[in-house]
Amino acid sequence: MKILLTGVTGYIGKRLLPVLVEKGHDVVCCVRDRGRLNLGRDLASRVTVVEADFLDSDSLESIPDDIDGAYYLVHSMSSRSGDFEELERQSAENFRNCMDRTNVRHVIYLSGIINDQNLSKHLASRKQVEDILDSGSYALTTLRAGIIIGSGSASFEIIRDLVEKLPVMIAPKWLKTRSQPIAVRDVITYLERCLGDERTWDRNFDIGGPDVLTYKQMLMEYARVRGLRRAIVTVPVLTPKLSSYWLYFVTSTTYSLAVKLVDSMKVDVTCRDNDLPEMLRIKPIPYAEAVSRAFEKIEQNAILSSWKDSLISGRLRTGLGQHIQVPKFGCFKDRKERPIRDRDGVLGRIWSIGGQTGWYYADWLWGIRGFLDKLFGGVGLRRGRTSLDDISTGDTLDFWRVLLADKDEGRLLLFAEMRLPGEAWLEFRIEEDRLIQEATFRPRGVWGRLYWYLVLPFHFFIFNGMIRKLAG
Fold it and tell me: What percent of the chain has pLDDT over 70?
């Protein structure tokens, strides 16, 4: 079958793509920014890539007409604009209208479990999208999932941050809310096996694991699997706003995402009974096993995708290509050079920078900068990095975003997603037998210029020490 896969740079899309290709499907990857899609040589030769933005109906002309099936994995949950419901409505309508012009027979939509009359804004928006997609001329299958457990998922990373960092938690009362978590492996299996199965057409299904747990039980079971002793005390005084700040400061989530998560966590998210597991011959993975499998991937440095690498985790709301040209005029620059002898060794150190490795010099100063950034509403340092020794375009590196990562060329270009009175780039490149490290800052107004001069003494020590360590 010829399949259109949207959201391919997202957490689920990245994992579904290789499964579809291995099943022999002809996959058309629909992306807003081709530069963010890193497929690897083998996979790149087996798929077709088209650029399209579902908020821009004119851009959808690039989508082929001869597709048989499609996956709608697009959502705007972490939009900072406050009108994510309108963005989701517009995107869904454009997708539906586009699909109606094609030969598609089957569309699959991944949504959230809806089992309460008073839905959160997030879940109400998901239901609105489902209704819009259901009005198309094709058959629709909607899979409604709750908490997804897997290495790199937003829910799993929040649970991980809370349990690993806090021996004792003073937590809000919504920790008593029940949920039915599902392993990411099961989500991918459901998505793949539903494709083209007419028994699932024009139906919706709740998908979850075999365990119904409160959020408190999920935290404590995670601690048990990890061999940690933890205590949790729930109190009624933490309002939704305070709860959102609590999640934001303790975990790696953004504040806007924390608000929507807290809003959704106030109601039970459990599955209605259905025959889909038997129909598709799926035996759902228990919660404790899903946690164990997630840590196997983490320990093997084999995380396939992470929510942190999505643009929703940072400041960028447009394509990476709009920032890849480092400005030359009206900027402050800090350029340093060092001779090198071992090119491969230098590249290895550059490609391991950030996250657990750190920044090679004065990590405590980087830590203070990250804390201040978090204090003023930025991303801080908690995002880390997905892989310990590999970097791809679009990845996050602490409070940086990777704009370009070309090991053959010997060039790594980062864009700052921290709170700044301006824009900043950090570039490493090897030219012949020299390592060049260049920081560029384009100030915004008087405050931007004042900021540069205030941090200049710190830059002198940090950047000198960093290039010295990198050069070896």
Answer: 92
Helix, strand, or coil here: 18?
A: helix
Total number of domains in the chain? 2
Query: Measuring CA to CA, which residue among 172, 143, 199 is closest to residue 16?
Result: 143
* Position 314 in a domain: no
Tokens 């509403």 correspond to what residue?
Answer: 377
80 CB contacts (<8 Å, ≥6 apart)?
Answer: 256, 317
Look at the block and give the residue holding tokens 């058959």: 139
Distance from C-alpha of 272 to C-alpha of 205, rounded to nearest angstrom = 8
Q: Is residue 316 part of a domain?
A: no
Q: Answer yes or no: is pLDDT of 78 > 60.
A: no
Q: Is 336 in the same domain as 464? A: yes
Cα separations in angstroms, 73 against 16, 178, 419: 10, 25, 29
Residue ending a domain, among 273, 302, 331, is: 302
Based on the fold, state whether residues 257 and 369 are members of the same structural domain: no
Confidence (pLDDT) at 320:
60
3 three-class SS:
strand
Query: With the C-alpha atoms ordered 355, 359, 362, 367, is the resulting torsion angle positive or negative?
Result: negative
Residue 317 inside a domain? The answer is no
Contact between 436 and 429 under an 8 Å Cβ cutoff? The reply is: yes
Given 243, 268, 302, the domain boundary residue is 302
CATH of the domain at 427: 3.30.530.20
Distance CA 397, CA 426 (A): 12
Integer Cα distance of 456 and 332 in angstroms:
10
Q: 324, 261 in Cβ contact below 8 A?
A: no
Please, what sign has the CA dihedral across residues 82, 84, 90, 91? positive
Question: Which residues, other chains included, contact 231 with Cβ-Cβ below 8 Å and sequence gap of 6+?
Answer: 167, 168, 169
Report the distance separating Cα 199 and Cα 113, nearest Å: 20
Kindly report the backbone phi and psi dihedral angles of residue 282, in degrees, each rounded to the nearest multiple of 5, phi listed first.
Answer: -120, 130
Cβ-based neighbours of 26, under 8 Å, separated by 6 or more? 1, 2, 3, 48
> What is the tens place of the pLDDT at every residue in 332-361?
999 999 999 999 999 999 999 998 899 999
Give the residue from 289, 348, 324 showing the smallest Cα distance to 423. Answer: 324
What average pLDDT does the segment 27-46 reach? 82
CA distance 246 to 37: 33
3-class SS of residue 210: coil
Whether residues 412 and 281 fall in one domain = no
- Give me the phi and psi of 234, to 5 degrees please: -95, 140
Cβ atoms within 10 Å, residue 440:
20
Cβ–Cβ < 8 Å for 178, 212? yes
